[in-house]
Amino acid sequence: MADYKDPENTILIELKDGVVAIELMADIAPAHCERMKELARAGEYDNVAFHRVIDGFMAQTGDVEHGDMEDDFDLRRAGTGGSDRPDLPAEFSRIPHDRGTLGAARSSNPNSANSQFFINFKDNHFLNGQYTVYGRVIAGMDHVDAITRGEPPTTPDRMISVKVAGDA
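Now predict its structure.
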């Protein structure tokens, strides 16, 4: 395993092409970071589809309710659910939505983030102050760039496994 400066706040996402390491920003968005670690440790993110992947914008995943490709998967419903935990209040900051940052997906209600998230393919500063940023890719962005595009993709990629580096 690679050395990470804070393994307890580093997420490892195994994709078809390799592992993506994400450094969580626990000091910026503690509730969002705790939720991601909680769902990762419970195995909830394993086999969840990337249901919305827009070239030049972002890749969205994390619907643990409808996105698990090993458990009654229905591509039409992927992206419409969350987890069995309550929604999270927004934790907006001055951290910009730069390439490789992790943002909390939500509905039009700023306090509706739950389990879904997106990874920015490029700087998307028009999202600044509107969506919680709570992590950044520190290794494996080339694997994120290789995720199959579509809204939804015809044959979506999935997160094979998601772990907290400190547990791996």
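The mean pLDDT is 97.
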